[in-house]
């Protein structure tokens, strides 16, 4: 599903895409995933201005080295599970991707 479709999937179930605003939560979510998944963060409204789905601004990020890079007009944020990627760690695993890319999202109530 695209980022928007993943968000709608969550909202249809009384939830929304996950907001990861602590190191503890980042470590926990990272331990659960075994594929690339959407989280509730994007800069779709204004390039470079990352906002969570509750409209709060990003205070602490857990980016892969060199990310976010907006390489191909990438506005939506995934948690990348690829533990073989150079520099990956539970605290360095976010990547920006095209919002139309197909992947699952992590929902939270």
TrEMBL record:
Under Pfam families, the record lists: Lectin_C
Concerning InterPro entries, the annotation shows: C-type_lectin-like (IPR001304), C-type_lectin/snaclec_domain (IPR050111), CD209-like_CTLD (IPR033989)
SMART domains in UniProt:
CLECT (SM00034)
* Domain called C-type lectin: residue spans: 1-108
Query: Which GO molecular-function terms appear in the entry?
Result: carbohydrate binding
Keywords on record: Lectin
Record carries keyword Transport:
no
Q: What is this protein called?
A: CD209 antigen-like protein 2 isoform X2
Organism encoding this protein = Cyprinus carpio
């Amino acid at each position: 599903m695209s980022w928007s479709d993943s968000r709608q999937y969550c909202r249809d179930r009384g939830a929304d895409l996950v907001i990861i605003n602590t190191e503890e939560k980042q470590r926990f979510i990272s331990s659960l995933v075994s594929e690339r998944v959407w989280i509730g963060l994007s800069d779709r409204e204004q390039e470079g201005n990352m906002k969570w789905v509750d409209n709060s601004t990003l205070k602490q990020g857990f980016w892969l080295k060199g990310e976010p890079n907006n390489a191909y007009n990438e506005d939506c944020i995934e948690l990348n599970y690829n533990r073989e990627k150079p520099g990956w760690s539970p605290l360095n695993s976010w990547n920006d991707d095209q919002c139309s890319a197909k992947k699952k999202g992590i929902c939270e109530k």
